[in-house]
Amino acid sequence: MSKLETAVSSLVELFKEYSGKEGKKGQLSSAELKEMLEKELSSPELKEKFNPEEVDTLLKDLDKGKDNLINFREFCRFVTLLARAYYKMEKEAKK
Ligand SMILES: [Ca+2]
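Output (structure tokens, whole complex):
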């Protein structure tokens, strides 16, 4: 697989893994999203920006359908925010 395909497939697998832990499959609950933030973010900068303790604020922001669950489309928005934060962080680090 190419780099891009590897990255995309990791994201899809990650969503499937965490959204399948409890309740509806294919939907992340607040607890599942929190667990993902806790386990899958290791850099202090990203952990600060996407603080697991403030998961409900993030969920509200992502949850366009207002059902308190994060579907794949809404998860993609999270990935966008994360990618932008990471990009900015890298740029700052090189200064
Ligand atoms: Ca939703």
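The mean pLDDT is 96.
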